[in-house]
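#lab-general

N.A. 3:47 PM
ok so I finally got the sequence cleaned up, no stray characters, all 401 residues accounted for. can someone with queue access submit it? mine expired

B.Y. 3:52 PM
send it over

N.A. 3:53 PM
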Amino acid sequence: MTAPLAGIKVVEIASFVAVPAAGALLADMGAEVVKVEVPWGEVYRHASPKLAGFDSDFPGGAPYQMDNRGKRSLGLDLALPQAQDALRKVITGADVVITNVLPARLEKYGLDPETLRRSQPSLIFARLSGYGPQGDRANDPAFDYTAFWSLSGLMDHLRDLDAPPGWMRPGVGDHSAAMAMVTGILGALRVRDQGGEGQIIDVALQQIGHYINGNDTANALATGETPPRHDRKAPRNPLWNHYQTRDGRWLFLVMIEADRYWPTFTKLIERPDLATDERFANAVERFRNSRALVEILDALFAERTLAEWEEALDRDRIIWAPVRTLAEAIRDPNANESGMFVTVDHPEFGRFKTVAPPFRMSDHAMTGDAPAPLLAVDTADVLAEAGVDDETIALIVSSSS
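B.Y. 4:20 PM
back already:
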């Protein structure tokens, strides 16, 4: 089968995570993605695991490799007027531009969507910002830590009672934004295929935060209130709570329809007497007496190790999970057997595993195993294909080395 985006050319003018991750997904679907990168390589490329606190000697940026797979690398120093002109020629042959460059900088280089689409109305221009393309914050720099995590209310809300604000791991908001950007691009391509023109797609990290937190945000908008934090010692539903085991590990019960699971659960934990205890007769009574039930379950789960509880709780189809470390999670048999991770053969770093694309297509292999390009390796070829003259190519290549 033909790849879904075969024949589509994408120019990516971006650094770090969200937009490059969107570019990788477009490449997974068959698009030709040309990554424009500073000649010395962006910081993300060089962010080795050791810089993030790992003991590993893996020499490159493993997340960079994941988010830039299958692309071509065009090294350009946009301080050179010749490089700006050359990039515009490359864009002339493109269907889509994706970027996280701030609007003022894009306008400075003549790369803003209004300028480009005047001569190229079929162009789809997708841009990521922290706070949206209009208003006082349009040119404010941002990371997902600020716009997605802190300003959306997630940082305050995702913490235990009396604990300091929660800490987000890298790229959580960015990878969510990447999928939103790809969705917008696919919709715009569909419109253009039906005879329409290109359009501008905007994705704001702050908006993604509100969308990802949509259940709580929708309630807050409707009520004007902040939802109460989860109190694990007195939860609204003790069967939707986490408990510590004898070996200091944790397990997570997620039986949202508690009445449905309560009889089975009491048998699995070998406490059938709880099923006939009037304090816990139904969801309402368990809520009223949640503190007492949690005290019982805390003592009960502390009697066995996590491994022992795993064997017991897996005997029937209740919904629960062990709270795993990431090192444990990547060894999960289901994750490995079902293709959630892939092996990359890289010309510089050799063989290593990485994260597979987040969805699959029945008639197109979303392998995700293509290596990220070596820095600026495709510069001369990409510029020549765009019609840039040999003298300018030589100047740009020499300035990139």
